[in-house]
Amino acid sequence: MSRDTQKLCSQYFWTLDSELPPQLIKEYLDVSGEGTLGRVVRMLDAKIPLLPKAYLTSEFLKEAEKKLPDAFFQELGTTISRFERLTQSGFGAKERPLLLTVEGDFCGTIRNIGVSPQSLPGLVHHYGLATAFTLYVDFLESYSALVLACPHIDFRKTFSIKVDREGGPGGLAKLTEAKFLAHIMEYQNLVSQKIGRPFNDSPERQLLATLIRSAKAAKESGEDEVFLSVQMHRSQFGQSIHGVAFTRNPFSGKADLYGVYQAAASDKKHMIEPAEGERPNGKALRESNPALFAQVKRMLPEIEASFRDVMEVEFISDEDGHLYFTTFDKANTTAKATVVAATELNVAGKIDDLTAVSRIKASDLEVLLHPTLDDASRAKLEDLGSKGVCAAPGTAVGHIYFRMEDAIEHVQAAAKKKQDTRVILIANELLISDTPGLGIISGLVTLASGIASHAAVMARANGIPCIVGYKGLEFDSKGAFMTVNGKKVKAGTLLTLEAGEHGSLFMGEGKLQNLSFKEGVVRDVSNLVTRVLKQKRVPVEVRVNINGARDAETGLGFGADGVGLCRTENMFMEPAALREIRNVIFTQNPAECVESFQLLEATQFADFKKVFEVMREKTVNIRLMDLPLHDFVPQTEKDFKALCKQLKHLSVEHIRGVADGLREHNPMLGLRACRFGLIQPEIYDMQIRAITRAAYAVQAQHQCQVNPGIMFPLVVTEAELTRLRDRVLKIEETVREELKIPYGSKIRFRIGSMIETPAAALAADRLARVGEFFAFGTNDLTQTSLGVSRDDSAHYLPFYLENGLLTADPFKVLAEPVRELIETAVTRGHRVRNDGSFGICGEQGGDKATLAFCLERGLDYVSCSPFRVLPTRLTLLHEAIRLDSLAARETKKAA
Ligand code: PEP
Ligand code: MG
Predict the structure, then answer these.
(1) pLDDT value, residue 370
(2) Packing angle, helices 520-535 and 362-369, rounded to 10
């Protein structure tokens, strides 16, 4: 602080009130920091009227334990006189008693210093008996406990006094001033007995003791902010008003006036101004006191502009209508409001990009991107009591069904009758054959599956709220009802599903709050994240896992850098494609299925073309069919007959025979993925043709350089990948010739493989001799390296987690052995192919530890489901910033 300022300031107190000369406020600004002092000085600078305060300097804190010098008492006297003049009241006076507060975070706040037996008549006269009582008791309790270190004595309990104004037997209404005083004396005696010395009830002594105690506590805690301030309460006279206001609506984040106020001598709270569409509660301040309303409304934006954040403030007006603000705190806002406020302030240029991203949490975004259950509505619903694990966040309302066919039937019938078509599927697990129905369900609950199961992956991909591992639920054999905790719930009943911290089911219809990603705020967040990722040169991309063009569009809307994984098997689940692929499988002679292959190729071509059109020049890595064949194979006699009706040239016996032949004990390690592609190459060949034709079509039609990658699942050896690559080269050449594309326009089809087994991870150097990019399928890699089933782990993982046998779910957070395998693979792979690209495509991709791991270990990308793209990009950014500042600190230390 400059010498001049020191001359202006006192040695022990800095007075802070609206009468300070502006030059002094400027000097205070330079030295007041970010704490309470800084906030108050900023408000003075912004000309916000403030209830007078005094800041106790570090000089006082130093000397508080010694015998305080006369100079201190002189300054204290001057400060109190100033307070008295500014508020036209008197400390310890009978008439308008001045009440003071000593505040400091470390010691606790002591309010209402100044109440005393002498000032009681004035207190009661000015504030009314009830308020006077509350003020006095608050003071006595906090002063005894915090300053006199007396064990807590509950005043109200001791004297069986209820604080409510109506009273009742023994209540406040029956309290007289004389009785009140008698209680105070008795309480003081009790305290005196406990502390073993007389209770001094002089306000001057009490103030001094409080200041000294606060100074001690401040010193012990290493903090240095102690304030003495005027405490103003609503008097029972005139227009005195007390209120709490937010600079923005803390629920929506919109710049609307929001808050409540109480008028003099009334406990009823009124809204300052009802929010748009909200029912007014009480009398709006605009009507009851237009002049005060206008002042508050004018000042709130100034307060926010000065703090560049959403603030919660308290204000009070005196009987003459003068407005004072008393506190300025950062407001607690909902997830939605936090995001809206940060982006609006950023777009308006009030906060920079880095500040804005640091204020938004990925979990806030998750809430924003999915419907949530209104709190008031949740409180009214009957919870079925059991819980499951959230596999895809969100809330849904729908009629429950236990089989996809029943759900579809309901939707079709309801649509015809123009009735409610919303459905929730509750099933043991999601069958592959249920996949086409996913488009019609609003929510999904499974009993058996885990968070990396097919059900969970598909739900996340489709943005369907999903609970897995829901406990304590049983179905009857006919699919007519379910029983949860002894309660029977019939199929067709309307339920609410909430997948958040846990997964819960409620009877009836809850009120949902929704915000679509198309809304401006999400676009603003996405642009903001993109800017900062670029500015920080974050080297890891966030791509999207897709099942088709719709997912690609969603992912791109959230800022995806490309497609990390296109799961093509799901494209065969549409009824027409499913019939053709089944024809291929069951006919068992490709030569007899030319037409089926043509139809399949046509649908695949259309699908890939749409994906390339959406992604244009961005990376699109397409994985060829991954599922075991048996997933396409009907299981029951009824299904065999149904399939026989579709494939008329095949008999039921034939179908049954093929199905039996394809049945495997352990299909996930059976004839699947690239093994199938090698043994029966016709389907892979068809897919490669469709991809190459689609890429050339989009390149020609849109004059853009598409960037396709063809990826093979479950590859373990170099020999497998070599053979598969050669087929791509050959087919691409054929297609190019057919299309008469000159060699100069040849598209480079990158070749890659998934790494989903420990063997593949260890062979990454050899695989890198052939492939250019590698996707760690960490769902399967976790399954194959830890021996933990991604589909069945819901049965035993909870036990491991609850009993400390595992610290985290390995399908959420990469397990150590999986990290080691990835590190080894990346190191070995880079040894052979320096520019080889490595990324993570499993469900762990959005987890912050995984993202930090990718940044530290030099991975090139993560790929996640469409609705997780934006939260993942934000988390990646936060991790990159964190690691940067860690590294900067290390460098500084070393220097
Ligand atoms: C994986 O195994 O992690 C993966 C991305 O592939 P999928 O989930 O399709 O098996
Ligand atoms: Mg996999």
Answers:
(1) 82
(2) 150
